[in-house]
Amino acid sequence: MRTSIMAAALIAASASAALAQDVAKGEHSFNKCLPCHSIGPDAENKIGPELNGLDGRHSGTVADFSYTDANKNSGIVWDEANFKDISGHPRPRCRAPR
């Protein structure tokens, strides 16, 4: 019984450490986004829209941000998969046709 409790404590401690590392890695990774986007209670639109509440949000819907028609009509709903896709290659997701 004592061994089970110790094992559970070690697993919980290692999971907590791994989560802290993921958060730190995410914060570091987000630094490349800061020139164009902001997050948090005082977030404002910059070159790109603020990113609060991104998960599940339809593209082109942040208030007071001027989107292209291509972006507004893209049909994108932000989720983990397409966020990971763009976060590795920051660029405008929906460009207007030329």
Give structural notes.
This protein is mainly alpha-helical. Helices cover 42% and strands 0% of the residues. The chain is built from 3 helices and no strands. The termini are far apart.
Distance between the termini: 69 Å
> Low-confidence parts, pLDDT < 50 over ≥5 residues?
4-10
Give the overall average pLDDT. 76
What percent of residues are in strands?
under 5%
**Order of H and E elements:** HHH
Give the overall silhouette: globular
Briefly say what this structure is:
42% of the residues lie in helices and 0% in strands. It has helices at 2-30, 69-72, 80-87.
Key phrases:
0% strand, 98 residues, single chain, 3 helices, mainly alpha
Topology diagram in text:
Blueprint: H1 2-30, H2 69-72, H3 80-87
